[in-house]
Amino acid sequence: MKKIIFLILMFPTIVFANMQHQLQQLQQMQQMMQMAQLASCMKEVDQIVLKKLIKKGNLLKQKINSLCNAEKDYKAQKELINSANDINNNQHLRKMRICVNKIKLPMMQQKITDKFQIDTSQNICDLIVTQE
What we know:
Blueprint: H1 2-42, H2 47-69, H3 73-89, H4 91-102, H5 124-131
Helix pairs in contact: 1-4, 2-3
């Protein structure tokens, strides 16, 4: 009799644990499907161009750091603004933004905006010093 009462009391806990496990499996399957969708969409983005853009971004960072170290804040800011315009007009990055925004993964909750925006209220050199 005690076993029956124990099983009756434990039944909701067992059911709940099983439901939680099934929910986790479902969420994992959804994430896998979304990652597959992202990979499929990203196939349309030229990976060679993206690698070149990463290299260009690293060179820009070095150039801005160099200008800031030489106390050429205005030139550094101007360089950043010109580069932001290039980024905003780049069709490959635009396509990548569209791909990422199509999926809703917990790690990508923040939507990527259509435009790369710069806060011009502060000079880039001041921001670099603040972040270091």
